[in-house]
Amino acid sequence: MVLSEKLPVGSFVEKGIDWMTQNFSGFFTAVKEVLSGVIDGTSWFLTIIPAFVFIILISLFAWWIAGKGLAIFAGIGLFLVHNLNLWDKTMQTLALVGASTLIALLIGLPLGILMSKSDAANKIIRPILDFMQTMPAFVYLIPAVYFFDLGTVPGAVATIIFAMPPIVRLTNLGIRQVPADVVEAAKSFGSTPAQLLLKVRIPLAVPTIMAGLNQTIMLSLSMVVISAMIGADGLGKTVYEGITQMNIGKGFEGGLAVVIMAMLLDRITQCLGSTPQKSGKRFIKNLLSK
Amino acid sequence: MPKVEIKGLYKIFGPTPRQVIPMLESGADKANILKKHKHSVGVNNASFTVEEGEIFVVMGLSGSGKSTLIRCLNRLIEPTGGSVFIDDQDITKVSAAHLREVRRKKIAMVFQNFALLPHKTVLENVAFGLEIQDVKAEIRRQKAQEMLETVGLKGYGNAKPNELSGGMQQRVGLARALATKADILLMDEAFSALDPLIRKDMQNELLSLQHKLKKTIIFITHDLDEALKIGDRIAIMKDGNIVQIGTAEEILQSPADDYVREFTHDVNRAKIITASAIMRDAEALVLEKSGIRMAVRKMKDLGISSLFVTDKSNTLLGIVTIEQVSSLIKEGKEALESIIDDNIKTVSCESSIDEIIPLFLYSNYPVAVVDRDKKLKGIIFKSTVLAGIAGEGRESYGA
């Protein structure tokens, strides 16, 4: 069936956004204050740590969690970033990614648990997640600017929206995949629903949840350049400047720093899902034998 | 008072399970109800009692409803109708909180695929039931350690379950169930996932543990040999119905229907059937009361060539044969004592046919069945043994 007139989807959304800007400005201001406080605070904290201390700490942590190879990569990669004069920008980006991931986790984990518990919630939330992931990010950058002005905060909000679905989906999947007989065993010993969740379901879902966390971090990194377009600080800004000034070298340097950070975060979070104890023991032995 | 009693238990899967019960009561069967009403019958009107300290085995093929039945006992599956009494309390009627208490303190369960928590150590797994009850860490460690020793896994406490073999993992599962000191153990195909040799070990281990611990055990299996070996009594299930309940011998000797008979067809009867089930009445000469002529007449009457001799109090003295008796007559002597051969084989009432067969290899005499005080209880001939293996009951006397 063909309608003679176009449905007013666009103007409907515009009116909705206007209405929200007018009526929820208090709420948006509060969100903005909290978010910018968290991100700026983290960023400030990361930049006051001397770069060489930070590089050594990260390398040691990589060694503990994943072994020698990643430690060497972390040392060289971060040294290169510092050498390219991108250290402060990298720390700003890390703060943005870290804060966005943390908030995505705080919202996403309970949502995932809710979805695993209730098929109705599953049915409702799933299309919303699809929407969040596939609606082009530029489309909600604009309302984000309406609500939160230019700067880091709308970038963080857009990042959270885009990066949250994997942690929700994989928390749901991980909990649903816990073997039925283990759940049955826990019930047969008289577990309460809370004990079942905390002692059995979530611990057994951890590897899958960690895979979700990894994806969430990777997706927030991929939003770095896009959020730079609305004024977010960090490596994205360097890349964006490189593009707008036709400065290929500058753009490449910024991009390289993003890649190094992405690889480091990816490898480290991948190892968080498996058992860190053994490599940890190895690390302690290595330290003691020196 | 029975420890566990089940009365008229139904479990029906489907949208309106309660409406199916009257149909089952009026005689509809499982296939019919699935076809016409789209409901699947798990358990159909099951009733039995289990006494304290008994091993009660529920045996059936897959789909017979045995796993559903055992889960109704601790309400991992909610029964559709009927009652489950544990220590005289109907647990189908108790609240969720009360049910948790019953699961914590009274019933523990062992699962087919072990169902251990992979992220916890063996010791933590054994302590899991206690952890759920908020027992202090120190105390539950200690109790779990004791249980690990009981099942022969001392020193494995810090391993992860996946580092152990299947048999060892199931020992952990058993220790976990024993650690809560529950009186009732539900074992759902507990040994079915193990390879045959390990399974045999575990069966023996369970029997020897049971000897010490005297739990009330309800054991599910699809393996008749296993059922016959460990069960004090056995219930056989088919299509959700219990078709027969009885001891191993009762089931082998008098199967309730063709289904059970078919089942018992391949069983190694020689291992199960005992002397007391096949022996003939203890016809013997009482030494003080009988002379040589009495011996001859009795052998003639019974159509046999040898006779056991006992004293007045039925204590077995030995055997006399027709050859010896007739040579005694030729010599003109009367007293039987001189020809009693005390080199005879005896077995107890509990001996299995398996143990009796070799006794016939080097002896032509029948075997005497005696009790602990050497009192004669019965007699076994070669033919008796064959009849027993063939699955026939006691028949007429004679060899």
Automatic annotation (TrEMBL), chain A:
<dbReference type="GO" id="GO:0015871">
    <property type="term" value="P:choline transport"/>
</dbReference>
<dbReference type="Pfam" id="PF00528">
    <property type="entry name" value="BPD_transp_1"/>
</dbReference>
<keyword id="KW-0812">Transmembrane</keyword>
<dbReference type="GO" id="GO:0031460">
    <property type="term" value="P:glycine betaine transport"/>
</dbReference>
<feature type="transmembrane region" description="Helical">
    <location>
        <begin position="70"/>
        <end position="87"/>
    </location>
</feature>
<feature type="transmembrane region" description="Helical">
    <location>
        <begin position="93"/>
        <end position="116"/>
    </location>
</feature>
<feature type="transmembrane region" description="Helical">
    <location>
        <begin position="44"/>
        <end position="63"/>
    </location>
</feature>
<dbReference type="InterPro" id="IPR000515">
    <property type="entry name" value="MetI-like"/>
</dbReference>
<keyword id="KW-1003">Cell membrane</keyword>
<dbReference type="InterPro" id="IPR035906">
    <property type="entry name" value="MetI-like_sf"/>
</dbReference>
<keyword id="KW-0813">Transport</keyword>
<feature type="domain" description="ABC transmembrane type-1">
    <location>
        <begin position="90"/>
        <end position="269"/>
    </location>
</feature>
<dbReference type="GO" id="GO:0015226">
    <property type="term" value="F:carnitine transmembrane transporter activity"/>
</dbReference>
<dbReference type="GO" id="GO:0043190">
    <property type="term" value="C:ATP-binding cassette (ABC) transporter complex"/>
</dbReference>
<comment type="similarity">
    <text>Belongs to the binding-protein-dependent transport system permease family.</text>
</comment>
<feature type="transmembrane region" description="Helical">
    <location>
        <begin position="137"/>
        <end position="164"/>
    </location>
</feature>
<protein>
    <submittedName>
        <fullName>Glycine betaine/proline transport system permease protein</fullName>
    </submittedName>
</protein>
<keyword id="KW-1133">Transmembrane helix</keyword>
<keyword id="KW-0472">Membrane</keyword>
<dbReference type="GO" id="GO:0005275">
    <property type="term" value="F:amine transmembrane transporter activity"/>
</dbReference>
UniProtKB/TrEMBL annotation, chain B:
<keyword id="KW-0813">Transport</keyword>
<comment type="similarity">
    <text>Belongs to the ABC transporter superfamily.</text>
</comment>
<keyword id="KW-0067">ATP-binding</keyword>
<keyword id="KW-0547">Nucleotide-binding</keyword>
<keyword id="KW-0029">Amino-acid transport</keyword>
<dbReference type="GO" id="GO:0031460">
    <property type="term" value="P:glycine betaine transport"/>
</dbReference>
<dbReference type="InterPro" id="IPR000644">
    <property type="entry name" value="CBS_dom"/>
</dbReference>
<dbReference type="InterPro" id="IPR003593">
    <property type="entry name" value="AAA+_ATPase"/>
</dbReference>
<dbReference type="GO" id="GO:0005886">
    <property type="term" value="C:plasma membrane"/>
</dbReference>
<feature type="domain" description="CBS">
    <location>
        <begin position="279"/>
        <end position="336"/>
    </location>
</feature>
<keyword id="KW-0129">CBS domain</keyword>
<dbReference type="InterPro" id="IPR051921">
    <property type="entry name" value="ABC_osmolyte_uptake_ATP-bind"/>
</dbReference>
<keyword id="KW-1003">Cell membrane</keyword>
<dbReference type="InterPro" id="IPR017871">
    <property type="entry name" value="ABC_transporter-like_CS"/>
</dbReference>
<comment type="subunit">
    <text>The complex is probably composed of two ATP-binding proteins, two transmembrane proteins and a solute-binding protein.</text>
</comment>
<dbReference type="Pfam" id="PF00571">
    <property type="entry name" value="CBS"/>
</dbReference>
<dbReference type="GO" id="GO:0006865">
    <property type="term" value="P:amino acid transport"/>
</dbReference>
<feature type="domain" description="ABC transporter">
    <location>
        <begin position="28"/>
        <end position="264"/>
    </location>
</feature>
<dbReference type="InterPro" id="IPR003439">
    <property type="entry name" value="ABC_transporter-like_ATP-bd"/>
</dbReference>
<dbReference type="GO" id="GO:0016887">
    <property type="term" value="F:ATP hydrolysis activity"/>
</dbReference>
<protein>
    <recommendedName>
        <fullName>Quaternary amine transport ATP-binding protein</fullName>
        <ecNumber>7.6.2.9</ecNumber>
    </recommendedName>
</protein>
<dbReference type="GO" id="GO:0006970">
    <property type="term" value="P:response to osmotic stress"/>
</dbReference>
